[in-house]
Recover the amino acids of this structure.
């Protein structure tokens, strides 16, 4: 019988895969999508607990998370395009230029 | 019989979700990662359907796999990422392995949590659009409005960032 514990386990495994992607890779797109994977694993846990507790607040919070993810995607990709225009690279280290000029 | 199919559905979707995630972090080209991630997102949508979140099932496919991933793939293809543009990651396998070793104790720790199950039957309305709408517009009106402001700000911000030329 699949119960809430299985969903907790699956969710933490997906979250750990997202952490590994953020820590170990240097391509900005892959880091970006790993963050989305972490958001999705949190969504899965919210919805699993919403079924477990028979309360729909968890599903509403998941919808909020999707809205935040959409906002993050639009801004993040705009910044990626802007940095690529100046540097012609997808290295995450180049995003140090977001700190601005040191004067 | 129905119970058997139900059990196996969880494992099938979970398997695909994890495989998609592994493909996401391990492939070289971002477009391969993006398609692996879409597999993962569809598997998660199936899990939401098992959890009787019908509205979230539709939203996951339309908003995530539809809108957000199309945006990401559009940008990857728009920037015309070629193999020679990709930065070299000579220690990729070592780094992936060591990061997995570092996070695995967290996974084991959280997996040791046990919550006693109390299987409750939910009604057919649970997770339907009407019930979610009631919940959203009665109890969660303020967060909903704040999300709308956030989306407006991000839209204006994306336009400002894209227009800046100097």
């Amino acid at each position: 019988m699949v119960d809430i514990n299985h969903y907790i386990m699956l969710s933490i495994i997906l979250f750990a895969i997202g952490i590994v992607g953020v820590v170990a890779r240097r391509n900005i797109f892959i880091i970006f999508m790993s963050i989305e994977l972490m958001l999705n694993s949190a969504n899965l846990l919210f919805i699993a607990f919403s079924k477990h507790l028979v309360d729909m607040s968890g599903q509403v919070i998941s919808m909020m998370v999707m809205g935040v993810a959409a906002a993050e995607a639009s801004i993040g990709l705009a910044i990626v395009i802007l940095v690529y225009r100046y540097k012609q690279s997808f290295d995450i280290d180049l995003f140090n230029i977001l700190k601005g000029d040191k004067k | 019989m129905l119970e058997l199919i139900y059990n196996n559905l969880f494992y099938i979707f979970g398997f695909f979700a994890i495989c998609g995630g592994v493909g996401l972090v391990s492939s070289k080209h971002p477009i391969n990662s993006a398609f692996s991630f879409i597999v993962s997102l569809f598997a998660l949508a199936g899990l939401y359907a098992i959890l009787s979140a019908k509205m979230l099932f539709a939203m996951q496919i339309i908003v995530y796999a539809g809108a957000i991933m199309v945006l990401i793939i559009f940008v990857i293809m728009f920037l015309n990422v070629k193999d020679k543009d990709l930065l070299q990651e000579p220690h990729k396998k070592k780094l992936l392995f060591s990061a997995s070793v570092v996070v695995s104790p967290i996974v084991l720790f959280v997996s040791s949590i046990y919550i006693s199950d109390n299987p409750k039957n939910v009604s057919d309305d649970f997770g339907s659009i009407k019930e979610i709408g009631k919940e959203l517009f009665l109890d969660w009106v303020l967060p909903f409005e704040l999300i709308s402001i956030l989306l407006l700000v991000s839209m204006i911000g994306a336009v400002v960032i894209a227009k800046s030329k100097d």
Remarks:
- Helices of chain A lie at 4-24, 28-53, 57-87.
- Residues 57-87 of chain A form the longest helix (31 residues).
- The mean pLDDT of chain A is 89.
- Chain A touches chain B through 68 residues (CB under 8 Å).
